[in-house]
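Morning - nicotinamide-adenine-dinucleotide inputs below, output right after.
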Amino acid sequence: MSEIKNVTVVGAGTMGSQIALQTALAGRYRVTLVDAVPGQLDRARAQNRKLVDRAVEKGRLTKEQADDTLGRIIDSDDLEAAAKGADLVIEAVIEEYDTKKSVFTALGNASRKDAILASNSSTIAISRLADLTGNAARCCNMHFFHPVTVMQLCEVVRGPKTSDATVNAATEFVRTIDRTPVVLNKEIWGFIVNRILFAASEEAMHLLEGGYASAEDIDTAVQKGLNWPMGPFHLLDFSGLDIFYGAMKDRHRQGEGGDAPEVLRKLVENGNLGRKTGKGFFEYPK
Ligand SMILES: NC(=O)c1ccc[n+]([C@@H]2O[C@H](COP(=O)([O-])OP(=O)(O)OC[C@H]3O[C@@H](n4cnc5c(N)ncnc54)[C@H](O)[C@@H]3O)[C@@H](O)[C@H]2O)c1
């Protein structure tokens, strides 16, 4: 496995654009950011420009460092060409199995045989994609958190065929871009963080539905008693109830855990998706 110098990020949306930026900030990688939708690479560049400009205002970067960082990100709409030169590819396209399947098939055909191929998916384990590449040993999940430039963690997930060399190279890479890796040695739905978040959120909804306490008091209890920065209901509203509901449905389909609680289903079906719609478990007046 060769030293990582060239990193390709596939998908320039919420996650991919910031994974590319965080990688470029390390100063030692050439980054290629790929997207298939016209205009998306320009939007990603504009958002990353805002982030580095804010860092300059706050004195965390010089103007020159900000410009150099963005200069290290090359935009591309040609997945195969971008895969050819990469030592590490991080896939961050939409959470849709067929789309990820076609990306991993293309990566298997175009990338060097020793390049590491990682998926940032929150729910699609690498074992469902790795065999499409012809070399499952070099594939793993690298699950970053939103917003990548703020959230420290990256879960590196080993599939049944992932090699030690791949896990070691992926965790080392995460350290070099100033994030904190943890290794999940065996795949399991939700990895570590989302399993714990789901367990806590489900329990919070169970208490609410059973009339044991109000959403406000459950949040206060968790915030003040467990020292979480925000309680589970505020966190659900902040993340978007539709996202959480979809993930719970997916978990249930994959034979893990129960179906989504009634209180969540009703909110989502009525279009109350949390902060973004102005109402979820709480109200957010404009
Ligand atoms: N948003 C989050 O909070 C979050 C957190 C952790 C992990 N994830 C995971 O990250 C991945 C991306 O999520 P996101 O929120 O950034 O999605 P997003 O919808 O913001 O971005 C996805 C991008 O992929 C592009 N795309 C779609 N098909 C493509 C293709 N064939 N080739 C190249 N680009 C293509 C789209 O144009 C879009 O820009 C998902 O797998 C998701 O589970 C998301």
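Note: The longest helix spans residues 40-57.

O.
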